[in-house]
Specification:
By secondary structure, the chain is of the alpha/beta class. The chain has helices spanning 57-64, 87-90, 114-124, 130-143, 160-172, 190-207, 218-224, 242-247, 252-260, 299-303, and strands at 6-17, 29-41, 46-50, 72-77, 80-81, 97-100, 178-182, 210-215, 227-232, 235-241, 309-312, 315-317. It is built from ten helices and twelve strands. It is globular, with a radius of gyration of 21 Å.
Length: 322
């Protein structure tokens, strides 16, 4: 395999935990939102990142597009380590790395019309000709299933599905190479979800773009992804090609996700559903990330973190018993 489009290695991100007096005193501890993530995305590939809410999926995506700074690790893109770039050095790469947010409406200026919002992006990236900007905006709106009529509307005049299409248009308009999709269909009904997912797949094939698709819905991830990484408590616990994961899940957490999934094609009776909540991962955390909820936990699991290793060709997992 040749060079990857994007390669993340040992990515780390922590946030301070303050006491009752807030920021008046130094933090009493640090929460590890991302704790040693490593994965890659190839050109034209959709990589699905799935896990419970709060496991660090969105934080990982925001670090990749430069909205958050990593505390450690590297993100190689085009021969550059994005974690080592200053804001000025990173700015030219924003054209190639874009993001679709979960709550798209909050990312839009309610006082601007749709056309002005999209044209502003082009202006920032150096398109000075007003006629050319308008032509490019209308072409992009048509590409995502919106019409010229929507060019003159305000964000609050759009439906939920139309808002998500607009969010995708905002990412597409400067022709990126990688789009991070952070729960883009979680707030939509099933029929609209299907339309958005089909549109993303068509755009990926047509424009040869890559997607990092973040979701807690394992059924949606199965539909759109080429490879899947299962994330728990800030780190990957399993990774393989999509159909292989669903045919042969190895990690107990992956099996627990399947047990909870409302998907008729998953044989849920073979797996045990999870109980309890995710613990808070701090600097003092030791052992396997899943040890506090795993039905197979041993003393070794509590003491020693398993290596994220390849157990079959293209299939990695972090579990002592596999």
């Amino acid at each position: 395999m040749g060079e990857h489009l994007l390669e993340v290695t040992n990515l780390k991100k922590t946030y301070p935990i303050y006491g009752n007096m807030g920021k008046l005193f130094a933090p009493k501890d640090h929460m590890c939102a991302v704790a040693g993530m490593s994965f890659y995305i190839d050109e034209g590939e959709t990589y699905g990142l799935v896990g419970e809410s709060g496991c660090g999926k969105s934080t990982t995506g925001r670090i990749i597009v430069g909205l958050n700074k990593a505390d450690g690790g590297s993100i190689l893109y085009g021969g550059k380590d994005l974690c080592r770039l200053s804001e000025r050095e990173y700015r030219p790469l924003r054209r190639e790395l874009q993001m679709v947010f979960q709550d798209t409406i909050s990312a839009l200026n309610p006082r601007q019309r749709i056309g002005a919002i999209l044209e502003e992006t082009l202006t920032i990236h150096g398109v000075k000709d007003a006629a050319k900007r308008r032509e490019q905006v209308l072409a992009t709106l048509e590409r995502v299933g919106l019409s010229e009529e929507h060019y003159f509307r305000y964000p609050h005049e759009l439906s939920g599905g139309q808002v998500q299409r607009l969010g995708i248009a905002g990412a597409l308009i400067i022709q990126p190479k990688l789009i991070v999709c952070d729960e883009p269909v979680s707030a939509l009904d099933v029929s609209i979800q299907a339309q958005i997912l089909n549109m993303l797949m068509e755009l990926k094939q047509e424009l040869r773009i890559s997607l990092l698709f973040i979701s807690h819905d394992i059924g949606v991830v199965r539909f759109i992804s080429d490879r899947v990484g299962v994330m728990y408590l800030g780190t990957l616990v399993e990774e393989t090609e999509t159909e292989n994961l669903f045919a042969n899940p190895k990690h107990p957490y992956t099996q627990a996700l399947f047990a909870a999934a409302p998907d008729p094609y998953i044989r849920r009776k073979e797996f045990t559903a999870l109980t309890g909540e995710q613990p808070v991962r701090t600097d003092k955390f030791a052992g396997c990330a899943f040890s506090s909820r795993c039905p197979y936990t041993t003393e070794r699991c509590r003491r020693e973190a398993p290596e994220f290793r390849e157990i079959e060709k293209g299939h990695k997992t972090a579990c002592h018993r596999v």
